[in-house]
User: Which sequence fits this backbone?
């Protein structure tokens, strides 16, 4: 075990931050360290916290961390939300709440959006989760904003997803729920002291009852919270625990771990295979002809891709 | 030229809708038709309209269509936004405004979110744009929500991106601009009759002046609009025209077309190569051993992927 990997296994947060930065930059040295850490991963309970901007995810997260710490659990946070407190975009109150946690050795918070590059977020996020997992954090929360490809990919890689919404968000944001509805294991109606909170709960319940899917055994709870003063946070943590227990008892906890590793592996194969295929092509006249025909629209991209892939052979 | 492709080239909207549905379902028949259409693409001016939910993109879009039609341009719309009017999540006023357009032969609007599947949106979106391009629409607008991998990929594939924001959106949404700032060619401050509009314009101008990038020749304009009654829409369409002219004069219009085709081709190669690699592996004992070691964490996903990719050979 090399020095950096050892430090990270011992919980050294500076070493972990250095490694995550290497991984963000796709540095081979980072991958080498992550390989050494890998056998020590697979123990964390991984949560997703998602919802549109402005619903109070950051404030809720600050209180969630407090409650997890009360229960003697170490908490890691990977914030994929560009508006998360770490990146400086949040309200002063959240920054103060978070500062309390940053002085706690049992809490480690990393934002994946500070470097300004948005591409490849889901890959780097998964790598950061592996690092925090190896460090021994019991609970890892991935905070994402909105709904899109990133969120769906992140949801596929966590054990439990909580979707946060608000009363009175207006038609446009209500419509987003159609996408978020599919990925939620737990639903949170925040700012539940505002008018219309019970209406949102009723609407969600109705939509959830109509939701079709193979996983009919788990009935997603809808938790009302007032994040600003911590109301409902204990109930929310209880709901996370209940879902974890459900996953363990049904064997789905291990299934999701296996599926996550397999998908990550498959994604790596895709990227490495593409690099290998394209790296060796530039000097070949046949490839240059193909690209010329593509650019001049003499050949369509599907036919061009089929031509190239036809020449690929794979043995193991 | 087969029947379906011919109908689409003649502008038949029902045939186009059928084809886009086939492409959403990844049906080989859809790809065959798209191949036939491909030589007829590459003529449209492709715009991206993006911003957080609630900023009034749909209302703005309805007025934009009217103004483009005034200028005798045929307009296609691909709405990647789940809250777009087509999917039924929008305000009644927008639906009425859109209905007027749906009865106009020179307008074609497709939503990519009605089917409820969120994965692979950016690929299907590009395919839908190709279909509309082949149909002869002069302007194609891609409407997306929020900021994420999808938006960045969409921004990479359009000629001109307009980013819409609002006065007084609060800290959290302001922070999102950091991501949106990078991809905007034109910025729109909608609801500019609300207090604080000039402050947002000033902030944006300041942030844009600090924006670093190779493309220093184009100074992104900031347009104030009141979408609900169409104020500023003429100026916005003028800004789109000015950016188009800038792209054409500097050769960037063709460059972006070429880059878009190349990236689409590269993406297809990645997907087809992965399918080819994995399709033939399941029966191989060596592969099954590799997966067993992966699942039991005896081998890490990087090493497993390297092992597999090592055996790939590519000739053309």
Assistant:
């Amino acid at each position: 075990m090399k020095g950096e990997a050892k430090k990270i296994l011992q919980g050294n947060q500076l070493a972990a931050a250095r490694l995550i930065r290497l991984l963000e930059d796709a540095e081979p040295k980072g991958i080498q360290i992550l390989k050494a850490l890998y056998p020590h991963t697979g123990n964390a309970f991984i949560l997703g916290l998602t919802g549109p901007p402005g619903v109070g995810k950051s404030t809720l997260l600050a209180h969630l961390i407090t409650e997890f710490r009360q229960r003697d659990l170490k908490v890691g946070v990977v914030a994929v939300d560009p508006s998360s407190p770490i990146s400086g975009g949040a309200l002063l109150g959240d920054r103060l709440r978070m500062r309390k946690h940053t002085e706690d050795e049992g809490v480690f918070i990393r934002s994946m959006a500070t470097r300004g590059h948005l591409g490849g977020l889901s890959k780097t996020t998964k790598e950061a989760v592996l690092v925090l997992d190896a460090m021994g954090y019991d609970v890892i929360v991935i905070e994402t904003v909105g709904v899109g490809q990133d969120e769906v990919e992140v949801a596929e890689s966590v054990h439990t997803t909580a979707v946060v919404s608000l009363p009175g968000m207006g038609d446009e944001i209500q419509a987003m729920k159609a996408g978020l509805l599919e990925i939620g294991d737990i639903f949170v109606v925040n700012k539940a002291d505002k008018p219309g909170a019970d209406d949102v709960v009723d609407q969600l319940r109705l939509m959830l009852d109509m939701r079709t899917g193979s996983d009919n055994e788990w009935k997603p709870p809808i938790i009302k919270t007032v994040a600003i003063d911590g109301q409902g946070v204990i109930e929310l943590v209880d709901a996370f625990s209940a879902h974890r227990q459900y996953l363990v008892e049904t064997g789905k906890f291990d299934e999701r771990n296996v599926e996550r590793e397999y998908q990550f592996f498959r994604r790596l194969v895709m990227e490495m295979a593409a690099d290998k295929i394209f790296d060796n092509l530039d000097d070949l006249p046949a490839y240059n002809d193909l690209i010329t025909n593509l650019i001049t629209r003499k050949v369509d991209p599907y036919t061009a891709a089929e031509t190239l892939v036809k020449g690929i052979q794979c043995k193991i």
